[in-house]
Amino acid sequence: MTVRATYGEAIRLGFEYLMERYSNVFCIGQGLWSPWYVGNSMTDLDHKFGRHRVIDTPVSELACTGAAVGASLCGYRAIVIHPRMDFMVLAADPIINQAAKWSHMLGGQAAPAVTVRAIINRGGEQGAQHSQALHSWFAHIPGLRVVMPATVQDARDLLISAVLCDDPVMYIDDRWLYDLSEDLPDVVERDLRSEKPRVLRSGKDVTLVGSSYSTLLCQQAAVELEKQGIDAEVIDLRVLNPLDTTSVVESVAKTGRLVAVDGGWRTAGLAGEVIARVSESLGRFKSRPIRVTLPDAPAPTSKPLEAIYYPDSQRVIEAVQETLAVAR
Amino acid sequence: MTDVSVTRASDLGGLANPARPLSPIDVGAYDDATLRHFLTLLFRIRFAEEKVGELVERGLAKAPCHLGIGQEAVAVGVSAALNARDRVFGGHRSHSHYLALGGDVYKLLAEVLGKLDGTSRGMGGSMHLYGRELGFYGSVPLVGATIPLAVGAGIAAQMEGQGAVGVCYFGDGATEEGVFHESMNLASAMRLPVLFVCENNLFSSHLDINLRQPSDRIGRYGDAHVVNTRSVDGNDTVAVAKAANELVTHARNGGGPGLLEAVTFRHRGHVGPKEDIDVGVRRRQSDIDAWKRVDPIPRLISALRDANRMTAGEIAQLEQSVRKEIDEAATRAEAAAYPEERALLDLVYIGGASK
Ligand SMILES: Cc1ncc(C[n+]2csc(CCOP(=O)(O)OP(=O)(O)O)c2C)c(N)n1
Ligand SMILES: [Mg+2]
After folding, report:
1. Per residue in A274-290, is it b (16+ CB within 10 Å) or e — as a string?
2. In chain A, what residues touch B114 (CB-CB under 8 Å)?
3. Given a cut of 50, is residue B349 above it in pLDDT?
4. How far does the CA of residue B35 sit from the closest CA of chain A (Å)?
5. What mean pLDDT is predicted for residues B203-221?
6. Atom of ligand 1 nearest to the CA of B66
7. Cβ of A301 under 8 Å from any chain B Cβ?
8. Which CATH number goes with the domain that contains A145?
9. Whether residues A219 and A277 fall in one domain
10. Least crowded by CB within 10 Å, which of A152, A184, B23, B106?
11. Which residue from B1, B141, B177 is facing A129, i.e. has the nearest CB?
12. pTM for this model (two decimals)
């Protein structure tokens, strides 16, 4: 039976599925008893499952994340929620130095099956400390799986796969996607280890690669490009770490052109990683690959500066036109 | 709508109870000019923040604005103990901290609107203020972030040996971050000249302090870290000024850091101009009504009148002239220019264009 849901509601469905079926799942994080902090993605879960399993916390990102890691070493599948990724920086140690290292450093005998949910919440002239998309940073860490749903179904299903995975997983959702809506099939539990990037649209002229909101930009650009007679293939990365770019390489082998789109900064970022991997595999492109990213600057607050800061689908279209302008 | 309520005995006793019997504010220790200055600042902060609320309601200020209406006495009292060499840091709710040091309303409102003339040249908005010329070294919305920065200002002051202090304002919520405790310990171990000012408004966004901590008295952390501590009525400008002065004087003389807990309450919700809502959670109207009864401004006004320090006419005139100043500043700020687009890249590194 299918159910119509928005991206925000789909996340909530994922939580509901997990908490109904797995008594060892609990949620901890700031604002979980407020309807604003996490949008509509956890509405009333505290009432449905009790405030002992949906815990609103003091302003203590470090302790709450460390505690989630600790409980996960003791048989629980804790989900620690960071309503804003910027504030999660205070919890870097339990994520990077602890959760991500435990398996390897202790001989593969123990790993916290913790899920760290981080929300990207930008725009609205909120500025430098309330806007960051730090996924590339975390994707750099071996031992930490990183997923970023772009679609409504993935919003639900990747959450479920993340929580049921025995490794620590960072699940990153983006408030700009919350209003997307889709018909969802019943849940099928999937092993996160076999989840890979997905071709969302096939095309022969150019390969567009995105993740999360950037995937949406790629899809919007593809629709416009089709009107101009350009046939774009869109690949959604979904799982940033470990990153498997096999399908991207295959796609670029076919199209010869690559535009990598990312909502993070340019330098040492995800878009550069995608281009590097494809370049390592393919000797030849029809034109040089292009990345569309944020400029290497913090988010501004002033209206006209914010207006030029975030890439939009037009920027993706222009990048595609640039790759095509070069001799075919 | 979710209701988050709690009942527990208060370790703060009367300070957390706005329905307590009030003793009148004792203005005896201050001269007329100082008291007039206090009232001017209280008016300026209150009306400027009401103006910010209007700018939000009109859709002109989009970024989150956290209003401290009801809490003005804390910054006014603390600033009275400071001088031009001291260095002050704030947080997300810092309009009052900036203005109480003599900050310019036009610059504040221009910043709130993202204009070039703002305190941070339009790059920061309400949550990122700056005023080095006043000793205001910056406010940022990452909770607790500036607490260790003020400790650093304490190290600088100790090295300089000129008797300056580092000051940080933060809320009760910020004491739940580990960095608060590390900072208190460091400052105490090094006997640094630092004033930690906790505006304990008994809430962190929608959560009552009793849902977050086993006691509502932040002063207990001062005991734990062996820091001189005063817990005072944060709605009594004079009580705050006296306690801040004691702690600052002690710190200037090498006595080590001080923790000032000023117990107060914000009339508005956590963010934005509305009274009845904290991040989607309904507030208790009875709390708001009770705390308005101990509003710092009418309390200072009645003390001034009872002590024959200002007449009703003088007070009304002062109020009117501050309102006029704010209205004019707002009109100018609305008309002011935005920063140029090139600022986006030019300002990433100090001193000019980045590549
Ligand atoms: C590190 C960090 N965590 C969480 C937040 C979200 N946040 C902003 S203000 C605030 C409440 C802080 O409460 P308190 O320190 O008591 O200050 P008040 O708002 O009461 O003035 C929270 C949780 C943040 N800005 N930074
Ligand atoms: Mg507070």
Report:
1. bbebbeeeeeebbbebb
2. 125, 301-303, 305
3. yes
4. 37
5. 97
6. 19
7. yes
8. 3.40.50.970
9. yes
10. B23
11. B141
12. 0.96
Burial of A107 (0-12, 13-18, 19+ CB in 10 A): exposed
Determine whether the interchain pair A37/B279 forms a contact, defined as Cβ–Cβ distance below 8 Å. yes
Bridge partners for A171 per DSSP: A117, A147
The closest-lying atom of ligand 1 relative to the alpha carbon of residue B141 is: 25
Residues A158 and A216 in one domain: no
What's the one-letter identity of residue B140? V
Residue of B nearest to A303 (CA): B114
The CA distance from B68 to the nearest CA of chain A, in Å, is 19
**Cβ within 8 Å of B, A 64-103:** 86-87, 90
Of A201, A199, A247, residue with least CA distance to A225: A201
Q: Are both A167 and A225 inside the same structural domain?
A: no
Residue A327 — pLDDT band, cuts 50, 70, 90? low
ipTM of the complex: 0.95
Are both A209 and A73 inside the same structural domain? no
CA-to-CA distance for A37 and A326, rounded, in angstroms? 46
Pocket (CB within 6 angstroms of ligand 1): A 30, 59, 61, 87, 90; B 92-93, 141-143, 170-174, 199, 201, 203-205, 270
- CA–CA min distance B303, chain A (Å): 38
Residues of B with CB under 8 A from a CB of A: 1-2, 4, 62-64, 114-115, 122-125, 127-128, 140-144, 173-174, 176-179, 204-207, 211-213, 278-281, 338-339, 341, 343-345, 347-348, 354
For B60, list phi and psi in degrees, rounded to 5: -85, -35
Among B66, B27, B82, B60, smallest CA distance to B237 is for B27
Neighbours of B219 (CB within 10 A): 21
Question: What is the C-alpha to C-alpha distance for residues A232 and A177, in angstroms, rounded to an integer?
Answer: 22
Could you tell me which residues come within 8 angstroms of residue A272 by beta carbon, excluding any fewer than 6 positions away? Answer: A260, A266, A291
Percent residues over pLDDT 90 in chain B: 95
Where residue B9 falls among pLDDT bands split at 50, 70, 90?
Answer: confident
- Regarding whether A274 and A205 lie in a shared domain, the answer is yes
How many domains does the structure of chain A reveal? Answer: 2
**pLDDT on residue B354:** 52
Nearest protein CA to atom 25 of ligand 1, as residue = B142
Quote the ligand 1 centre to B255 CA distance (angstroms).
30
Sort residue A131 into left (φ over 0), alpha (ψ -120 to 50) or beta.
alpha
**Sheet of B194-200, strands arranged across:** B136-139, B87-90, B166-171, B194-200, B258-263, B228-233
Kindly determine whether residue A59 and residue B344, on different chains, have CB atoms separated by under 8 Å.
no
Residue B1 has pLDDT above 60, yes or no: no
CATH number of B30-354: 3.40.50.970
Q: Do the Cβ atoms of B280 and A36 come within 8 Å? A: yes
Q: Tally C-beta pairs within 8 A across A and B.
A: 130
Domain extents in chain B: 30-354
Subunit contact B178:A86, Cβ cutoff 8 A: no
Evaluate if residue B173 carries a pLDDT over 70. Answer: yes
Domain housing A269: 198-324
User: How many angstroms separate the alpha carbon of residue B213 from the centre of ligand 2?
Assistant: 12
A127/A152 same-domain check = yes
Report pLDDT for B351: 85
Residues A202 and A178 in one domain: no
- Nearest by Cα to B37 from B196, B238, B195: B238
Examine the fold and report which residue of A165, A191, A217 is the final residue of a domain before the chain moves on: A191
Give per-residue pLDDT as tens, A75-123: 999 999 999 999 999 999 999 999 999 999 999 999 999 999 999 999 9
Mean pLDDT computed over every residue of chain A = 97
pLDDT of residue B4: 62
Distance B171 CA to ligand 1 centre (A): 8
Lowest mean pLDDT among A37-41, B9-13, B210-214, B243-247: B9-13
Q: Which of A134, A162, A191 is at the close of a domain?
A: A191
